[in-house]
Q: What sequence folds into this?
C-alpha cells in the first residue's frame, strides 16, 4: 500500500513538472559532511574535512594535498545531511565530543577529540575498568590533570625555552640522538627527558627518541604519550594514576604520580587546588560524584 502511494505521488509530481526523491527502503542516513577541504588550509593529524561527497581524516600534518591523492588522508565514507553525525563514538569513550568541547572551550585546534579517541586503543583499560562511575571518574581525572598541565589544552610544548637543553641525560647508553635540546616538554602531560621519550616510544611502537617532534605534530601520538604516563608510570608517587582511580585511592594520588612533593604535602597548595577544582568541574559535566581523597 505504501509503495503504491509513493508511486502515485511520484506520478502526480511528474505530471506537473516537479522532481521527486523517493527514499530507499534500505538506505541509512549518512553522517553529516564536516567543513569542506580548503587547499590553502593547514590540517594537523586528527582534523577532518569533506571532499567529493566523503568525510576525510588527516593522519598527520598536511597542506594542499587533496583528499584521496595521498595516504595522509583516511576516507571516512560517504557523508550527507543525515543524522549520522550524532551517532555515538565507535570508541565507546565515556566522554562525548560535546562534553569534551564543553571541558575545553578554548583549546588549541591541535588537540582534537578524534586524536584523543584514536589514542585510546593504546591503553584499552583506560576509562573502561570498573563501574560506569569509576570509568567516568578516571576520564575526568585524566582530563583535569591534562587541562592543568596545558592551560586547558592550549599549550602543545613547554613555554620556557631556557629549559630545553636541560632534558638530555647523556649517561643513557643511547644518548640524545635528536640533539641536546630536543627533549623538552610536549603533549598533554608535557613528556620530557630523553629517557622518557625512549620509554614511551618503545611502549607505543614509535621511535620518539629519534623523532620527538611527532608528539607536537600528531594529536593522536600526543595523547598516546599522556596515556602512557597515566597508565604505566608511578612518577614520584607509589602507584600509577590509572591504578589510583580504578582501585579507589582517589584523585589526590594522581597528583602524587604526576608532580609528587612539588605540589603535595604543602609543596604548592594552590596548584593542588587548581587540579581538584578542574576535576570537580569535569565530574559534574559527566554526571558522577568526585569521590573521596581529592587532595594529596
A:
Amino acid at each position: 500500500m505504501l509503495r503504491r502511494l509513493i508511486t502515485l505521488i511520484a506520478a502526480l509530481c511528474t505530471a506537473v513538472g516537479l522532481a521527486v526523491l523517493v527514499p530507499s527502503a534500505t538506505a541509512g542516513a549518512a553522517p553529516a559532511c564536516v567543513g569542506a577541504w580548503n587547499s590553502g588550509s593547514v590540517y594537523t593529524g586528527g582534523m577532518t574535512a569533506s571532499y567529493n561527497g566523503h568525510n576525510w581524516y588527516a593522519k598527520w600534518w598536511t597542506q594542499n594535498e587533496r583528499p584521496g591523492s595521498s595516504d595522509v588522508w583516511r576516507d571516512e565514507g560517504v557523508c550527507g545531511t543525515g543524522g549520522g553525525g550524532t551517532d555515538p563514538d565507535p570508541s565507546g569513550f565515556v566522554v562525548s565530543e560535546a562534553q569534551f568541547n564543553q571541558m575545553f572551550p578554548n583549546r588549541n585546534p591541535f588537540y582534537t577529540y578524534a586524536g584523543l579517541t584514536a589514542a585510546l586503543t593504546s591503553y584499552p583499560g583506560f576509562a573502561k575498568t570498573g563501574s560506569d562511575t569509576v570509568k567516568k571518574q578516571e576520564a575526568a581525572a585524566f582530563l583535569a590533570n591534562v587541562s592543568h598541565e596545558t592551560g586547558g589544552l592550549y599549550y602543545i610544548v613547554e613555554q620556557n625555552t631556557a629549559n630545553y637543553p636541560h632534558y638530555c641525560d647523556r649517561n643513557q647508553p643511547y644518548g640524545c640522538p635528536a640533539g641536546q635540546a630536543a627533549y623538552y616538554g610536549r603533549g598533554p602531560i608535557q613528556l620530557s627527558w630523553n629517557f622518557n621519550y625512549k620509554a614511551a616510544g618503545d611502549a607505543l611502537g614509535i621511535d620518539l627518541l629519534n623523532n620527538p617532534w611527532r608528539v607536537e605534530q600528531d594529536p593522536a601520538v600526543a595523547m598516546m604519550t599522556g596515556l602512557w604516563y597515566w597508565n604505566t608510570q608511578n612518577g614520584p608517587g607509589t602507584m600509577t594514576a590509572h591504578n589510583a582511580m580504578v582501585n579507589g585511592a582517589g584523585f589526590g594520588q594522581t597528583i602524587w604520580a604526576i608532580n609528587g612533593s612539588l605540589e603535595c604535602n604543602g609543596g604548592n597548595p594552590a596548584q593542588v587546588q587548581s587540579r581538584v577544582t578542574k576535576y570537580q568541574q569535569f565530574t559534574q559535566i559527566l554526571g558522577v560524584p568526585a569521590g573521596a581523597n581529592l587532595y594529596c
Summary: The longest helix spans residues 132-150.
